[in-house]
């Protein structure tokens, strides 16, 4: 695959977008939709995953990109934890929970691979411009 020039081309961002859409659909149904605090928290965390990937990429500095990838991965863990909380409150079915857990694992793995790919390309330094990395 060629060089990535836009965050939209990153698999990690694409998977994070899928996660965000899954979270929004799952939290749209009652009674989840009526628990405004939990609904807003899980949506915010899911949106944070894709937003931090995009922001890090567009900062054009690998140290910042790597940092924001770690933030994105942490937000993905937050979504996973909140999915359990929603399940415990009977806001999610077991099937919906398993779907969210599978997607968070997929997104977390994609972010980890992207992070590792950037670090591998920066022996001894972390100052190459993002956008020069190949998709992993």
Please describe what this structure looks like.
By secondary structure, this protein is mainly α. It has one domain: 23S rRNA-intervening sequence (de novo design (two linked rop proteins)). The protein is 68% helix and 0% strand. It is built from four helices and no strands. 36% of the residues are buried.
Summarize the structure.
With 136 residues, this protein is mostly helical.
Q: Which short descriptors sum up this protein?
A:
136 residues; mainly alpha; de novo design (two linked rop proteins)
Order of helices and strands: HHHH
Instruction: Tell me the CATH topology.
Output: de novo design (two linked rop proteins)
CATH architecture: Up-down Bundle
Query: Over all CA atoms, what is the radius of gyration?
Result: 16 Å
CATH homologous superfamily classification: 23S rRNA-intervening sequence
How many β strands by DSSP?
0
Q: Can you tell me the number of structural domains?
A: 1
How much strand content do the residues show? Answer: under 5%
Distance between the termini: 9 Å
Q: Please state the average pLDDT score.
A: 90
Give start-end ranges of low-pLDDT stretches: 125-136
The structure class reads mainly alpha
Which bin fits the share of residues in helices? 55-70%
Please report the first level of CATH classification, the CATH class.
Answer: Mainly Alpha
